[in-house]
Write a structure and sequence with these properties.
Length: about 270
């Protein structure tokens, strides 16, 4: 309520609605309220975001195994068709002391306690560090191994490309490939997500008769006249560096620094 001075005039309050101080206080209060609201929303939505991320990952694994159907539950199909295991990359042995479904390979690759620096001369995939362990996903039917799905990643032109490579039970024949996270140029390197190009990988062989990982992209298209065509895939038109990156990441992760020790173990166990 306003006060009246001795001359009968309304006295001006020291806290005017038009004062600069009040404007600052109101603005600061509004900012504080909004920041609290945003923080609370972020914390509250975090579990949902993690769940959606997990579902998307499972969806991509099912897609590369050709088991995904929009009309079915991702969780149900994944739980009934996919067996997740954790391996030690150096030895290829299974790790039974950790829950493989909660293992985050990307996070582990940034943790010095769970990763190693890759020597420059061996870092053909351009990733600098790698986790010492990795998840693998097995598709079985009546306890018989049908597919081996491996997480692979490496640098292209603009980004690190993350994907899954599915191999037949022989550990050398490609059943499918899928890049689920990449930032390559749309229409050029971004064609790594094109279903037509991905279909070209089916039936290709990873390892030469000497046991070296030689599968890779060539410049142009593979034809019947292409030497050793079973080890080659059409390059990405206008995207030479992305094509080189795909070749490098495949040969790195299927080589001795990647999953080769594990795949050798699989072959011996099946022989």
């Amino acid at each position: 309520m306003s006060e009246v001075n001795e001359n009968g005039q309304e006295a001006k309050s020291g806290w005017s609605n038009d004062s600069f101080s009040k404007t600052i206080v109101v603005a600061a209060s509004l900012c504080l309220f909004c920041s609290i609201l945003v923080s609370a929303a972020a914390v509250g939505l975090r579990p949902l975001q993690l769940k959606n991320k997990e579902l998307d990952m499972k969806k991509n694994i099912l897609q590369v195994a050709e088991l995904y159907d929009e009309g079915t539950s991702i969780e149900v199909v994944f739980g009934s068709k996919i067996e997740t295991k954790l391996i030690e990359l150096e030895s290829g042995e299974y790790v039974d002391t950790e829950n493989p479904e909660s293992f985050d390979q990307r996070k582990a690759s940034k943790d010095p306690a769970e990763s190693v620096v890759i020597p420059a001369e061996l870092d053909t995939a351009g990733i600098r560090r790698k986790a010492t362990k990795a998840p693998v996903y097995l598709v079985k039917e009546n306890d018989e191994l049908k597919l081996i799905i491996l997480p692979v990643h490496g640098y292209g032109l603009w980004s690190t490309m993350y994907g899954f490579l599915a191999l037949e039970s022989d550990g050398t024949t490609v059943a499918g490939i899928n890049f689920y996270d990449q930032g390559e140029t749309p229409g050029l390197g971004g064609e790594v997500v094109n279903p037509k190009w991905r279909n070209l990988w089916k039936g290709k062989k990873v390892y030469s008769t000497e046991g070296e990982a030689v599968l890779g992209l060539i410049k142009g298209s593979v034809t019947e006249a292409t030497p050793n065509a079973e080890y080659k895939v059409d390059g990405l038109a206008g995207a030479t560096l992305t094509s080189v990156g795909v070749t490098n990441l495949i040969q790195y992760w299927l080589g001795k620094e990647g999953f080769a020790p594990y795949l050798e173990k699989i072959k011996k166990d099946r022989s």
